[in-house]
Amino acid sequence: MAAVDASREFVYQRFSEFYRDHANAVPSPFLPEQREFGYLMFKERFMVRHRHYNSIEDFRKTLAQTIPSDVYHSCAYYENPDFDMDKKGWTGSDVVFDIDADHIPTKCNKIHDEFRCVKCGFQGRGITPESCPCCEATKFETKIWACDQCIESARDEVVKLLDMLEDDFGFSGHEMRVFFSGHRGYHLHLEAEAVRSLDAMARKEIVDYVTGLGLSVLDREAREEKAKRKRGSAKFNLHNYGWHRRLKMGMTDFIEHASKDSLQEAGLKNKALLENKDTIIKRAIKEGRWESVKGVSEATWLKLAEIVREEQAAKIDTVVTTDIHRLIRMNGTLHGKTGLKKVEFPARDILDFDPFRGAVAFKKGKVKVFVSDAPEFRMSGETLGPYKNEVRELPTAAAVLLICKRRAEVAP
Ligand SMILES: [Zn+2]
Ligand SMILES: [Zn+2]
User: Fold this and answer.
1) Cα of 375 to ligand 2 centre, how many Å?
2) Does residue 10 lie in a domain region?
3) How far apart, in whole angstroms, are the C-alpha atoms of residue 160 and residue 164?
């Protein structure tokens, strides 16, 4: 127990140095005086909310005095940010997307993520369920890790999202702000005037679009309804923009790379898809003459399109985007589960930005820790681990990460 306390104290001291150093002054969000601020107390573990600051300087002073473990502000703008929720006077909100490995099924989360039901002790590996399959309780103790594969899968989702927001919605680069979350995901903030006043319903429409929900081209009923109105047949017609373009591109890519195995994996039994690939791509996918490919039914085309829809959909945490009162982690602050910072980087750098360099907060010093269990990981360009029940002298950032993840303690 003493070692745990000493370890928490060690992390607290590092957080404290961080927030007291003017070089780490947190960047101001847009219109800070209209935002609600909140933070989780490091030692007391309770959340302070509904705070209002007239200037970012005042908030920086609070950070230096209270040393929270996690810091948030509202996506929303209010007339009175410190009033009760229903009296705040909501005037608008940024549109925020949360892309986190927690919501993306990766091959690695079965390896490094564990959960245990607090009530009945049921445990498993992989994504933590909404409720316990044994007792339906919703509280879990989790042990999760952020590996390169997690970060990369989250990153791929951001790339898809950026593409849709830019190409389909027409947002420009400077309206889409991209952040590493400090743990194993990314945040994308849309701060354009045009979206600020959108209500929850309108935000749900955006969510449905980027997740490809309710694409009518895939829905037989919707197509038949449309055909009735236009007195045509229920055609599977794809044009050259938006989701239809994505479906065409994805289907082309699928056919180009199709093999016996890939068809089987996708649950497509039709071998005709492997013959005359060029004809299929040109006549069917490009020109929409689906019936010209012998031996492939409309149902098969629709199934293929459905597979592509699933692939192309951006896997966001949908609740975050529709919640117009949401608190979001503040740019430039530390993540209590890693000691890494939430940091902004240009959207065009998404493929090059390395969180284990760019989000590192503690760049000085080394510390001796006892590591119970840690996989191989990277920090500031150094590859460390794997470690198992051993004492190691590690760079501060690596030690803080392992302590925050309850995989190490400060060595006596
Ligand atoms: Zn349970
Ligand atoms: Zn992983």
Assistant:
1) 10
2) no
3) 6
